[in-house]
Specification:
The chain is mostly helical. The chain has 9 helices and no strands.
């Protein structure tokens, strides 16, 4: 979809209906017949990205794995969507620019992530005192980083660089294991979180 590419590459302010009509090899009249304004076209792009995101949320939520790893898996799948789906990438950028009227991209997955984290907490899979809002914010920051990673890869051209989804899975493995050696926390000589790295999504 030419509109998604234009919004992703140039942002809301840098995109015009004339630019989109040229990229799509369509007349201005053909474009405005379907979308009278740039806002309507931006919303259409976001709706397409929302459909792909909602499908991913539903698929991950239904997996027969512990809630914590479904939550982690959800962020990794979303990072892969940012890599593979142009409408999702455009939706994420349009959210950053507060453009359009369709619900924000993050609102499509943050409530489910919070629900999965709450389930993990109920099953004692999180350290006592873990703030679920903070973990959800961490996920949002990580996905913002994944989006930036994808954008930088695109600007640099294709190559053998590590993908955003793979990198995000590795970051989560580090988060779940912990990097601080604090024996006083668990009495075993390390601050390792519950769960095996083998359970992380690949």
């Amino acid at each position: 979809m030419a509109a998604a590419a234009e919004f992703y590459e140039h942002g809301y302010q840098g995109t015009s209906l004339s630019r989109i009509s040229k990229a799509a090899d369509m007349s201005m009249g053909a474009v405005t017949f379907h979308f009278a304004t740039k806002d309507e076209l931006a919303d259409a792009v976001r709706e397409r990205g929302a459909a792909a995101t909602a499908a991913a949320v539903t698929e991950v939520s239904g997996r027969p794995t512990p809630a914590l790893y479904r939550g982690v898996g959800l962020t990794v799948v979303l990072a892969r969507l940012l890599e593979d789906d142009l409408a999702v990438r455009a939706s994420a950028r349009l959210e950053r620019e507060n453009a359009g009227t369709v619900p924000a991209w993050s609102s499509l997955w943050q409530p489910e992530l919070h629900r999965l984290l709450a389930g993990a907490q109920d099953h004692d899979a999180l350290r006592h005192g873990t703030d679920l809002g903070t973990v959800t914010s961490l996920a949002a920051h990580l996905l913002a980083g994944a989006e930036a990673h994808v954008r930088c890869q695109g600007e640099a051209g294709a190559g053998a660089r590590q993908g955003a989804a793979v990198q995000l899975a590795q970051i989560w493995e580090l988060v779940l294991r912990g990097i601080s050696l604090r024996p006083e926390e668990d009495g075993r000589g390390s601050g390792t979180a519950r769960g095996s790295s083998a359970e992380l999504p690949k």
